[in-house]
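stage 2 :: seqdesign
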């Protein structure tokens, strides 16, 4: 990987399957990595492993729950207080919930964790990202192209979202007709849409914003999607998937590959730029999602 000495990288979901690899690899390349996690002890092993591998970079930990507005603001403030410049932000935290949950702020949980956490980190770190002419990478999911959990032959079904839906983020993913994987897909699509609006604004200072699907990767997130009756065979499912290191490579590439200098507003499936459904190109919708997130961050 390109040498990253003298750079600062922020990684959310740093305790997870892919997050741990992203943190370790950025540190190995010489970056000072701010690992954002709910529990710092889950980062201790990453730090120890990086040290054993002789990684020259430093790993700092900022703890916080990105599902709440208060947590999101606290994490962003902690990062900004310590770092005037951020050169890489990997919005990797994410979750899939088997049932409908509502956060303390009244958001459906996928909207909070798979969308607002990424939007909020990017928005609230605006100044350090601009000073660092940063690369922002949003780890999303190919469910933004097809929200069917099982892809039987037939036309893809992208998640549906309208400007009216997003006018109030609390109305996204309502109880009526709730399907967990579609709710996850819709939240990831909101991240792609808002990311494109953010790319336009941040581009004036050389900041790029891209989204990536890492492939199907053997992590806790996927373990949680295996139906209860099939849990004893989870190892079989895992064996068919990419390793966390193979999955993490996609975000690392977008975060560091010199060949991608200046690339922005793109969507990649692993290492290939991939077209998105028309809904993702709707500039009015991109702006509506951006405004809704901005309002929510300010007023709750
Ligand atoms: N695995 C796949 O096949 C796949 C496919 C497409 C996209 N993705 C995306 O890849 C990203 C990484 O996921 P993964 O597969 O590596 O899964 P993972 O091992 O479950 O990691 C998810 C990470 O997100 C963190 N997180 C969850 N809720 C959070 C919250 N409220 N506040 C702060 N952090 C929170 C988790 O923290 P804790 O350790 O505290 O739980 C964990 O570090 C996610 O955005 C996911 O949607 C994964």
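stage 2 :: out
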């Amino acid at each position: 990987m390109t040498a990253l000495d003298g750079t600062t990288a922020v990684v959310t979901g740093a305790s997870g399957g892919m997050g741990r690899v992203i943190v370790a690899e950025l540190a190995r390349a010489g970056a000072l990595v701010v690992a954002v996690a709910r529990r710092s002890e889950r980062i201790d092993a990453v730090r120890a492993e990086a040290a054993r591998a002789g990684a020259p970079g430093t790993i700092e930990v900022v703890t916080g729950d990105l599902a709440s507005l208060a947590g999101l603001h606290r994490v962003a403030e902690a990062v900004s207080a310590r770092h005037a410049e951020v050169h890489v932000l990997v919005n990797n935290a994410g979750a899939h919930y088997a049932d409908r949950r509502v956060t303390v702020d009244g958001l459906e949980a996928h909207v909070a964790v798979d969308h607002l956490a990424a939007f909020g980190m990017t928005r609230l770190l605006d100044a350090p990202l601009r000073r660092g002419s940063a690369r922002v990478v949003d780890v999303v999911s190919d469910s933004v192209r097809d929200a069917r959990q099982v892809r039987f032959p037939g036309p893809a079904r992208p998640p549906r979202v309208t400007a009216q839906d997003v006018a109030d983020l609390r109305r996204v993913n309502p109880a009526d007709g709730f399907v967990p994987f579609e709710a996850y897909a819709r939240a990831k699509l909101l991240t792609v849409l808002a990311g494109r609006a953010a790319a336009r604004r941040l581009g004036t200072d050389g900041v790029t914003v891209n989204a990536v699907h890492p492939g199907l990767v053997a992590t806790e997130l996927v373990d949680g999607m295996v139906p209860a009756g099939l849990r004893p065979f989870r190892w079989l499912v895992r064996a068919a998937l990419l390793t966390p290191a193979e999955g993490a490579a996609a975000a690392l590439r977008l975060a560091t590959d010199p060949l991608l200098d200046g690339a922005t507003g793109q969507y990649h499936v692993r290492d290939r730029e991939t077209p998105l459904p028309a809904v993702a190109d709707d500039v009015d919708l991109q702006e509506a999602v951006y405004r809704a997130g901005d309002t929510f961050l300010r007023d709750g």
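stage 3 :: structure notes
- Residues 13, 15-19, 37-39, 42, 65-67, 92-95, 113, 139, 141, 213-214, 216-217, 219-222 surround NAP (CB under 6 Å).
- The first helix runs from residue 17 to 28.
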